[in-house]
Amino acid sequence: MTTVALPDTDPPKRGWYKRNEIAVTPWLFLAPAILFFAVYVIIPIFQSFSISLYDWDGLGQAEYIGLGNYAELMNDRAFEVSLWNNLKWLVCYLLAIPAGLFIALFLNQTVAGIRIYKSLFFFPFVLSQVVVGLVFAWFYLPNEGLLSNMLAMIGLGPVNVLGDPKLATYGIILAGLWPQTAYCMILYLTGLNAVDPEQVEAARLDGAKGWKMLWYVIIPQLKPATFIAFVVTIIGALRSFDLISIMTNGGPFGQTRVLSFYMFEKALSEYGFRMGYGAAIAVVLFLIMLVFIAYFLWSMYREEKGGH
Amino acid sequence: MFPRPIQQASAPAQTAYKTMLPIALILWLLPLIAVAVFSIKPASDFTQGNYWGMPGSFEFVNNYGQVFFNSDMPRYMLNSVLITVPTVIGAVALSAMAGFALGVYNFRSNIWVFFMFVAGNFVPFQILMVPVRDLTLDLGLYNTKTGLVLFHIAFQTGFCTLFMRNFIRALPFPLIEAARVEGVAEWRIFWFVVLPLMKPALAALAVLIFTFIWNDYFWAIVLTQGPDAQPVTAGITSFNAQYRAAYHLMSAGSIVAALPPVLMFFLMQKHFIAGLTLGAVK
Amino acid sequence: GSHSLSGDLKIFLDTSNPAPRATMEAMIERFGAQHPELNIETTVIDREAYKTQIRNFLTADAPDVATWYAANRMRPYVEAGLFEDVSDLWAEPAIADNLASTKGAMTIDGKQWGVPYTYYQWGIYYRKDIYDQYGLTEPTNWDEMKSNCQTLLDNGVKCYTIGTKFLWTAGGWFDYLNLRTHGYDFHMEMAAGNVAWTDDRVRQTFANWRELIDMGGYVDNHQNYSWQEALPFMVNGDAAAYLMGNFAVAPLREAGLSDDQLDFYQFPAITEGVALAEDAPTDTFHIPANANNKEAAREFLRFVVSADEQTEINNGANLGQLPVNASASIDADKFLEQGFAMLSSNSPGGVAQFFDRDFPAEMAAEAMQGFQEFMVLPDNLDDILARLEQVRQRVYK
Amino acid sequence: MSGVTLDTVIKRYGNTQVIHGIDLDVQDGEFCVFVGPSGCGKSTLLRMVAGLEETTEGTIHIGARDVTRLDPSDRGVSMVFQTYALYPHMTVEENMGFGLKMTGHPSSEIKSKVAEASRILKLDDYLKRKPKALSGGQRQRVAIGRAIVRGPEVFLFDEPLSNLDAELRVEMRVEIARLHKEIGATMIYVTHDQVEAMTLADKIVVLRSGRIEQVGAPMELYRDPDNRFVAGFIGSPSMNFIRGTVQGTEVVSNGLAHAVPKTGSAQDGQEVLIGLRPEHLTLKPGSSHRVDLTESLGGVSYVHLIGPDGEKIIVEERGDHRSSIGDQVDLVVDPDHMYLFDAASELRVR
Amino acid sequence: MSGVTLDTVIKRYGNTQVIHGIDLDVQDGEFCVFVGPSGCGKSTLLRMVAGLEETTEGTIHIGARDVTRLDPSDRGVSMVFQTYALYPHMTVEENMGFGLKMTGHPSSEIKSKVAEASRILKLDDYLKRKPKALSGGQRQRVAIGRAIVRGPEVFLFDEPLSNLDAELRVEMRVEIARLHKEIGATMIYVTHDQVEAMTLADKIVVLRSGRIEQVGAPMELYRDPDNRFVAGFIGSPSMNFIRGTVQGTEVVSNGLAHAVPKTGSAQDGQEVLIGLRPEHLTLKPGSSHRVDLTESLGGVSYVHLIGPDGEKIIVEERGDHRSSIGDQVDLVVDPDHMYLFDAASELRVR
Ligand SMILES: Nc1ncnc2c1ncn2[C@@H]1O[C@H](COP(=O)(O)OP(=O)(O)OP(=O)(O)O)[C@@H](O)[C@H]1O
Ligand SMILES: Nc1ncnc2c1ncn2[C@@H]1O[C@H](COP(=O)(O)OP(=O)(O)OP(=O)(O)O)[C@@H](O)[C@H]1O
Ligand SMILES: [Mg+2]
Ligand SMILES: [Mg+2]
């Protein structure tokens, strides 16, 4: 045979890098990403914690006040309102999940042109929230808006959704649900694609039909899609900012603020000069999110362990 | 397949379904259709209260001409491009490397580094606002496209790394082992073996990040000001401030601003959806 | 120019609307023509955005000249040492003599921190044709104001348009109601934080306000609109008047109202014997402390306040506002003339800047939000005032 | 009473016809196996019986009922899938009881039926587990249990064992055979595995391209194939084919050192294929074939030969007699175990 | 010169030890097959030789070189993976030449080596195709080609055929055997397929739980297993085991109608297992066993018996003699083909 002549002696002395190639390479590859991420994400999180302990207008000297900002938050009505609104967002935004599932079921057919339909239904997700906000703001206009016009058709008086402190938040959430539902729809469409057809057939032989099939067989199998939809919806709900800023600017009289908006207002807006206070709000928001992050990482950790 | 293929249903049910489809679509896209119609209406329609009727006249050229030649919109659009494209390249490059490191090597802190990226990706980004703004100011990058790009790259890297790492994990590992047995250096494995295999993921991510960044509003207003550096999402609001209540122009402007990601979506639909479902997080 | 200037001069402007923008750019061009060696770079930023961004560019990448507002509104930057002390300019006779009336608004800690370039009256702009139609005249006191209003309402016309989405418009109403109810000094005491919001005198102001609200005097859903979006009510005749600054005239004219249809009157007296005082916000130029070319910047400030430029930039074709230089002449515009007359001869109580310029930023923000809430839900008054009082105690410490 | 009868059954997908008019009678209690190359329509036919595919033309009866247009769940059939198709989110117990639950049986009845089935399949210890926690064989047992619980008249299996490894496959095969004996229901079973077909079937249906090639008991097909396709398909290793020509009463062939007697109706001069099973050939020293490779499996070994025309022949050797690579040998043919096929039509010459 | 020598090789993952001190000598040019149940450590051991897993303790020599701590690429080995591991974005040619290209060989040399390998493997027609456009067998051939091109001293195969279907598996098996003959390199081959092991190996290594149970030529293991595990593992169907006791010179057992002579050193009174291969048993009418099931594969059939203690026995029958279900039979044991194992230690009693 044709054997390549390999030296029978010990191999030539290899450089440090060569000897440690497998150990070192990942860190070389990770370095730029970690650097960027640390500088712009990780360190700022801790900085925010630290800033939240100061009274600082962003211009002059910062004054250390310990937990003063947090103490003030406890009595801040606007903060309370924001917190409640965040809760509303969290709860109502989840409606995107069943709504997305519903549309996905509706569209999960193979008729001519269905691909176009699917992509058009998905369309709202691609739009900027700024545009979505504008569009819905016009939709809600108290007199001229399409909503009022449609209500008038069925004999109901005009309604000022965004001007009504009780309705405004829900109005904005509805606007947010539009793209979010589209997102969940896509997740479910791919989820439905992955449902084992043999299981559906087995269930049909078992006599499961319609709702029963959906409930007992399909939805349990869509669990991964549901999980993802849940995660992105929660994140979306807690990050909601653009829509509020565009549609009501927090109003009327601050009733549609959420934490993320309130902190922007406190820290960076026209009259806001309270970096420390804003940071404290951000920290609270972060702590809320931490619950979900922890949950997410935990389930991912479980999967990693289970998967190997 | 669930629900049951409509082909197996009765003929009336099939017809009903096929007529429902366009109706549902129109209802679903009603707000958007309204904007599209707004954007070709004359100003007089709005002063006369004809908000939702047929356009009084067809003002496509006028309205869009106004947007393109008589406002800062083109500049904002250009800014958006100059912000979005480098961000996409940067984030994808960084995360491809990081994803490779995390997906291929089993060093001890692997999962913790990975979790750092994941967790960072999920933080409410408001918590970064004050420090990042200060950092950008300190770097002298406030109100520059570079400042915005650097931040976006960093923040998106979290998400992209999650995505890339999972993708690489799903690649058959023997491919890498085969290359190792053949004496291919690690970085060459990345370049010649892994990267070509990641093409679908790269495409999906690029499309996805493109839309995310194009549509970003929050950071645009935190880190930039004015038509020098602001992207179109922020531009549209000042455009609107300028044309308060001129719904036809605002609509035209909004549509122009929304167009690139929409085009991107339609051209790269397959990648886009793959991206969403693979990465599965925004 | 007297001596030759060189280098770069960076100017930041917030005059983003088309007309003011053109005015300022033309003015800068004239300045540039006098100093050919000088390389001038102008940046115009959206007016609303400017308000949040000034902080950033003052600390980071400071221009040599920047627009801003007088009084309390400039205090944070003065205190943070971000504005240049320009008392030296105010010592020059050309400025000291001609700009004396605005010196107070530019003074903090006994020093001057910038120069004004324009100011404008506030007051009630109304549809003369509609008033005429229902036989109404310009009111001179509170009762007439209310009875006018009642007549209009009876005929299906709202008395006042307003858009409170961005809150500050409500501040204007509070200013006038408070100035008329208790006078300039009381208002300023409040601004200085010396009066509790729960004070009965404050309640009195709100009680007056409430009369208009309860009548239904304001357009519905004003919380949805910006000030521009509220203009069509007046243009269309759904509302008869607008308490606003003089800058509203231009868009109203643009929307098609002729000078026959549009007129102006001073906010009428409420409490007898209280001297009339007015809001006349002053827009200003400042030199950031971190500026590079302060010499050129000072020269630019001198140029801006010169009588000629003041006459030019404030005329009806340009800003359409009042010049700050006493030697400048006022354009032959019916609103400018009325305004100038009002401010110079019929404002014995004093001239205030505006609610959000006289009150500290945080107080102003909270208060204006409270005003909006009050205008929508007047029954919440006690709650609102209690809240504002809480803020006052913190803000003024 | 609950046999299955197909009457000129046809299946078309759009314009492509994949089942071409099949007539078939499966007796009550019979174990019928469909075999055939991949894509021949085995699964399609089975799924048409199950009602999972529509029948384009023809009728299907189960017992006396015409079920051609009935819903799957109304046909009284149960099906076991290749991939098990267990519901991953349900326990073994729930999986098995799901069908009864859906049809509204009281839970006490479900319980007893599940208990009965799990006894038969020895699944009692796993009732509370989810499928994930089961081995492949256990999963397949659960799938069968699920089929049993519904007490169907007919069981359908689509390659139920092909996802199992060799050892388990043998074990499960035996279990299915036993199950059939125990409950005696009609069963139709699709496979591409020789051994399964031979060992399980009462009746094998050999399909090719949507048509039946031959139907019969396993040993019938093995001993008496109708054509070359069936002859080559049944038996492992496959039958060897050698070209030959009928000359008088004999068949002569390059590949055989000596002429062999012709069988049946072969005509003088007819071109034929001589079919010879590896187990019916023996070797003796000679010159016509060369030993190319030998594979010894312990008790048996396979000798790969190259014939004079380059054709490959496999011969099975038993016991300790072993040929070595390179040996020159002749084939010894047992005239009782020899088949002739017409070279053109490939039909058996009987 | 380029054999492989393992010296008390140990592998631990954290605290779990999976390879327990293995000593093994693979001669130059030898074809060595690792078999054993799933999870026994076959792949781990192979990957340690390749350098893809670190060796915790012990040394590995290839030829005279200690390669224990060398990088995979410096060991002079090539590996063929179960999943082929072809680079999907490269053509067949590029796949085969990639390793050489990356290690800086001139392209003319690469070309000639690739041409040589593709000639051996008959891949010339596919050189420009991507792996996607190849069948499973062709892909596996490319993977082997890639291994050949580098001209390694040792080839390593990890279940290279288990992703192929039965027919192809047979074909590729023959090809690998031929390849080994042609290039004569040392090969180590992991499989769990009986047939592959028996037919390919010069030497079989039977592993269990990270330990070697027995090493030897295939027929050696078949004829002379060291213990019950090896006896049961090699041969298909598996050897039957019947409990018995040594009494004097005989072994008596419930499961046998008559005592059988003891062999070797069995002690009086010793509890033993009698090992009997299915192919070495014959049946006669009797009473000790009942025929539970018969499986006929054409040439051969397997009779499943239930013994007096309920134990299961499989007997292979050839020819036309067939037992029927329910028959009562006795086992006829050939004393020459009978193995005794100690019941406790399960070691062979020789
Ligand atoms: N939905 C379909 N549309 C068109 N043709 C189809 C469809 N389903 C199956 N076929 C075709 O019908 C034929 C029979 O397929 P079927 O699955 O019944 O084969 P099979 O015998 O079960 O094969 P295998 O052994 O591979 O499972 C094939 O040629 C297949 O391509
Ligand atoms: N990374 C690892 N960490 C811990 N244990 C491992 C790891 N890799 C393998 N093992 C264990 O080592 C043992 C041997 O695994 P190996 O893959 O070598 O088995 P195998 O004989 O190849 O099995 P198969 O036939 O299933 O391929 C198994 O028990 C396995 O669980
Ligand atoms: Mg099939
Ligand atoms: Mg293995």
TrEMBL record, chain A:
The keyword Cell membrane is annotated on this UniProt entry: yes
First-listed, main subcellular location of the protein, grouped into a coarse class: membrane
Topology relative to the membrane: Multi-pass membrane protein
TM spans (from-to): 22-46, 87-108, 120-141, 167-192, 213-238, 277-298
Keywords for this protein: Cell membrane, Membrane, Transmembrane, Transmembrane helix, Transport
GO CC annotations on file: plasma membrane
Gene3D superfamilies reported for this sequence: MetI-like (1.10.3720.10)
Biological process terms in GO annotation: transmembrane transport
Localization terms from the record: Cell membrane
Top-rank lineage group of the source organism: Bacteria
Pfam family, one: BPD_transp_1
CDD domains the UniProt entry points to: TM_PBP2
Residue ranges of domain ABC transmembrane type-1 in the record: 82-296
Family: Belongs to the binding-protein-dependent transport system permease family.
Name by which UniProt lists this protein: Sugar ABC transporter permease
From TrEMBL, chain B:
ABC transmembrane type-1 domain span: 77-268
GO cellular component: plasma membrane
Bilayer-crossing regions: 21-40, 81-104, 111-129, 149-168, 189-214, 245-267
Topology with respect to the bilayer: Multi-pass membrane protein
Source superkingdom: Bacteria
A single GO BP: transmembrane transport
InterPro entries for the chain: MetI-like, MetI-like_sf
PROSITE patterns: ABC_TM1
Gene3D superfamilies referenced in this protein's UniProt entry, alphabetically: MetI-like (1.10.3720.10)
Pfam family, one: BPD_transp_1
Similarity section: Belongs to the binding-protein-dependent transport system permease family.
Protein name listed in UniProt: Carbohydrate ABC transporter permease
Species: Marivita cryptomonadis
TrEMBL record, chains D, E:
Pfam family of the protein (one): ABC_tran
Classification via SMART domains: AAA (SM00382)
CC annotations in GO: ATP-binding cassette (ABC) transporter complex, substrate-binding subunit-containing; maltose transport complex
InterPro entries: AAA+_ATPase, ABC_transporter-like_ATP-bd, ABC_transporter-like_CS, ABC_transpr_MalK-like, ABC_transpr_MalK/UgpC-like, Mo/tungstate-bd_C_term_dom, NA-bd_OB-fold, OB_MalK-like
ABC transporter domain location: 4-234
Cross-referenced SUPFAM superfamilies: MOP-like, P-loop containing nucleoside triphosphate hydrolases
NCBIfam families: PRK11650.1 (NF008653)
Family named by the database record: Belongs to the ABC transporter superfamily.
Protein name in the entry: Sn-glycerol-3-phosphate ABC transporter ATP-binding protein UgpC
Record organism: Marivita cryptomonadis
UniProt lineage: Bacteria, Pseudomonadati, Pseudomonadota, Alphaproteobacteria, Rhodobacterales
Encoding gene (name): ugpC
